[in-house]
Amino acid sequence: MHKEEIYTVKSPYREDMTIWGYRFGKGEPAACILGSVRGNEMQQMYICSQLVRALKELEANGCINANKRIMVIPVINGMGLNVSKRFFGVEDMDINRGFPGKVNGDTTDRIAHGIFEKIKEYTYGIQLTSFYMSGEFVPHVRMMETGYQNTSLANLFGLPYVVVRKPSPLDTKTLNYNWQNEMTAAFSVYTNKNDTIDEESARQAVAAVLRFLTRMGIIRYESHSGYISHVIMEHDLTDVHVEMGGIFKGLVKPGEDVRYGELLAEVIDPYEGFIRETITAPTDGIVFFAHTEPLVAQGDIAYRLIHRLHL
Amino acid sequence: MIEEVFSVELPVGEKLVIKKNRLTGKEPFSKRLAIVTGIHGDEFEGQYICYEVARRIMGGIEYFNGTVDLYPALNPLGLDIADRKIPKLNMDLNRMFPGKKNGTTMERVAAAIIDDISGADMCLDVHASNIFVKEIPQVRVSEEFADKLLPYAKLLNTDMVWTNASATVHESTLTHSMNMLGVPSMVVEMGVGTRIDRGYGSQVVDGIFHLMKEMGMWDGSVGEIQYPAISTDGEVEFIRSRITGVFLPTIEHNHYVTKGDKLGEIVSPLEGRILEEIIAEKSGLVFTLREYPFVREGSLLARILTGIGEE
């Protein structure tokens, strides 16, 4: 393992924020894995730290294949993590909306550029990331529909689902999109948590990344074969909205099967405690995303369901 | 007449309500001008513009033709706590247009705003700068729509019209969406975040009445207006910090400088010394000047409009 400086941001009031990369193996740039780009992505940082630990052991045992180089960057926005701020600096900028960055741009552009110049050459790019909506997902691999996406490769992670998202203009500044533009096969891996650590789904994510690296001939690692992934288009998910604001009491979790008409959640009046609204499943399906915050506003998405076609 | 554009129930005893003031004169259906502001909750310049436009129209209602819709607060939750983004969601509302009628709560808000403005003959989206830099009154139009918009932009009595190349993300802005829907739309920007410069505001309001006169919406007298400097990206010199520290400007905003002039210095409060002197590399008008003292490498210090002589 070789620890190298990827980029350093200076501050007059705090210590420098150095972004560290951990390199394993030698030769062609095979795979790059990124963790916490935002200051609340603690689960993503944890997963990467466990990958560094696992790859260090595999390298010591000679299990990184010849002429294959792997880079793991567990933390980008360390300053944000230390003060519980999702975005970077006083400008509150999302580094993951700054790619490919600009060498002469603002601070966030320069951070993104500094990172991207070091990682754009890799054949496979894996980002452990979070969604803008807070809540829990079924673990899945997400890809942008850029024309370069390859869902067959995404299947090799062995996670239950592969989701293809049609990019909005804003998505064109994400790492995933720009990696694909540079012909890196890019994958975003989502587990069920962000700002807390869930050991079980972290283990699942570590196993999925190691499984993918094995199947691409980059490492040698014995693992079970995982799931045969179900590929879904994001716009095919069925959104279940709440019609009233209040306290949200979710009754089903990501991954659970639900039947048409089944009670999914209740919205409780925050003053008098009565049930203002009951939310039922509009279709048979599997819970893909669940709102998990205690409060909910009118029109919020409580659940996203994968519509089940065959029972 | 005060009207509700969109309303959504928040979790605890409150609604998020977007309001507009519809002012109607003779032949109310002949022309409609929409003036929107408050997309960014840390920008207040538009509050004065809305107040002053309403005050002048009501004071000379006999000269008024058509309809003016004033939307002072498109991001009311942000304005209430001076948060640039949408509180809690931590997203920029001006990167969410055109929204979705069946999407998340804020996507519905964005769609409702678009729906309400649609059909207008002109839309002005009034911004202050953010809290970091101060701007002279200016109109910003994207290159894509410049031919159509420039004749109107020149009427707004601003110091400058900046036609800038449209970054992809600009496709998610309100003005881009409205222009795509056939409503000529421009961004008017002035001042600095969280403050109101009454002089700048009155200058722009004079311009708005000129625009209304041109559109056949105002028969009353209007004063002389100035014609703005028209610039493209190539004529704007960006000056960014090369170092981290505290910026102390040595010039006034809205000031002509010549090549070699000192614009300011970046100092170290801890060491009590000047770290870097900021020198103009080109002559021109300092139309943007940093107000927020703390800078990192890449922070915007000033923008100079080059290619114009001092008048």
Structure description:
The complex is a heterodimer of chains A (311) and B (311). Chain A is an alpha/beta fold and 311 residues long. Chain A folds into two domains: 2-233, Aminopeptidase (3-Layer(aba) Sandwich), CATH 3.40.630.10; 237-307, OB fold (Dihydrolipoamide Acetyltransferase, E2P). Chain A is 21% helix and 32% strand. In chain A, α1 (42-60) packs across α6. Chain A is globular. Chain B has 311 residues and is of the alpha/beta class. Chain B folds into two domains: 2-227, Aminopeptidase, CATH 3.40.630; 232-305, OB fold (Dihydrolipoamide Acetyltransferase, E2P) (Beta Barrel), CATH 2.40.50.100. Chain B is 21% helix and 33% strand. Chain B contains six helices and 17 strands. In chain B, strands 1, 2, 3, 4, 5, 6, 7, 8, 9, 10, 12, 15 and 17 form a 13-stranded mixed beta sheet that branches. Chain B has a four-stranded antiparallel beta sheet with strand order 14-13-11-16, with no helix packed on it. The longest helix of chain B is centred in the middle third of the chain and has 17 residues, at 198-214. Chain B is globular. The model of chain B has no long low-confidence stretch (mean pLDDT 94). Chain A binds chain B through residues 9-12, 86-87, 89-92, 97, 104-110, 132-133, 168-170, 172-173, 239, 244-247, 270-271, 295-301, and chain B through 8-13, 16, 84-85, 89-91, 95, 102-105, 108, 130, 132, 168-172, 238, 240, 243-246, 268-270, 292, 294, 296-300.
What is the largest interface, and how many residues per chain?
A-B, 39 and 41 residues
Strand/helix succession of chain A: EEEHEHHEEEHEHEHEEEEEEEEE
How far the N terminus sits from the C terminus of chain B, by CA atoms, comes to 44 Å
Number of strands of chain A: 18
Please provide the count of β strands of chain B.
Answer: 17
CATH class of the largest domain in chain B: Alpha Beta
What is the string of SSEs of chain B from the N terminus onward?
A: EEEHEHHEEHEHEHEEEEEEEEE
CATH topology of the largest domain in chain B: Aminopeptidase
Low-confidence segments of chain A: none
Percent helix of chain A, as a range, is 10-25%
Report the C-alpha radius of gyration of chain A, rounded.
Answer: 20 Å
What general outline of chain B do the C-alpha atoms trace?
globular
The share of residues in extended strands of chain B comes to: 25-35%
Q: Would you identify the CATH architecture of the largest domain in chain B?
A: 3-Layer(aba) Sandwich
Mean pLDDT of chain B: 94
